[in-house]
Automatic annotation (TrEMBL):
InterPro entries: cNMP-bd_dom_sf, HTH_CRP, RmlC-like_jellyroll, WH-like_DNA-bd_sf, WH_DNA-bd_sf. Residues 161-223 form the HTH crp-type domain. Pfam families: HTH_Crp_2 (PF13545). It comes from Hydrogenophaga atypica. This is Crp/Fnr family transcriptional regulator. The keyword DNA-binding applies. SUPFAM superfamilies: cAMP-binding domain-like (SSF51206), Winged helix' DNA-binding domain (SSF46785). Keywords: DNA-binding, Transcription, Transcription regulation. Gene3D superfamilies: Jelly Rolls (2.60.120.10), Winged helix-like DNA-binding domain superfamily/Winged helix DNA-binding domain (1.10.10.10). Coiled coil: none annotated.
Length: 236
């Protein structure tokens, strides 16, 4: 797999979000040499919702949980920021654009390299190829936002849950030897992602498990080949 198409986390989990590999090597080295590194611990907040950002960031180690808070106070899990992924580019390039996502460390540690708007513009001035990289990175993030809107729109809970499982499996899954796919997510993550109660999601997961489409383990959902066969039959 081309590194420009996906990042590989310590868990072997892939994401199609914007990564540092969208930038040429000399631009990456420039950020490494001039950015500000900070190490966060599990549960620490890296980015707060609706707070203006003074820097974008490059996640060099760990994983960040992404949560969006709705006007009524409810929260929706949007996914994760994975190792090598970039975040905050929109917010520092657009004036008065606060963060929409709340990012919390989801691993024992997270190593985050912060870089200011001035440093990003300096990088783009020094390395013209990096301008294309920034455009690609922003396009990837827009594509992810479109995916999220599609997944969390109106519809039956079963359909929304299937769509979320498919989307997350294409972004964050770990392939298993028997053709299954492992997702290191909790039932709470799924409930937040589809905007439903944990109890209702449990009922839908039990029905899918009884049909042989998936298994539920501790902090993990295993999608069996039958899940994808059912998906193909529905789409066909």
């Amino acid at each position: 797999m081309n590194p420009n198409d996906a990042a590989l986390s310590p868990f072997g989990v892939r994401t199609n979000g914007p990564t540092i590999h969208d930038f040429p090597e000399e631009a990456r080295a420039f950020l490494r040499d001039n950015g500000q590194m900070r190490v966060y611990q599990r549960g620490e907040t890296v980015q707060r919702t609706r707070v203006p950002l003074t820097a974008a960031a490059w996640l060099q180690k760990g994983r960040l949980r992404t949560v969006v808070y709705q006007p009524d106070g409810s929260e929706h899990a949007r996914g994760w920021v994975m190792t090598e992924e970039l975040f905050g580019l929109f917010n520092i390039l657009l004036p008065d654009c606060p963060a929409l996502n709340h990012l919390v460390v989801d691993t024992d540690e997270a190593h985050v390299l912060h870089f200011s708007r001035d440093l990003l513009l300096d990088m783009m001035h020094r390395f013209p190829d990096a301008r294309w990289g920034v455009s690609v990175a922003l396009s990837r993030r827009i594509a992810q936002m479109s995916d999220f809107i599609d997944v969390t729109g109106p519809g039956l809970l079963e359909d929304k849950l299937r769509a979320l499982l498919v989307w997350w499996s294409s972004h964050y899954s770990v392939p298993a030897r028997d053709g299954s796919v492992e997702l290191w997510v909790t039932q709470n993550d799924l409930a937040n992602g589809v905007g439903a109660s944990r109890q209702r999601v449990q009922m839908e997961l039990k029905a899918m498990r009884d049909r042989g489409e998936l298994d539920v383990a501790y902090r993990k959902i295993v999608l069996r080949p039958r899940f994808f066969e059912q998906l193909q039959a529905t789409q066909g």
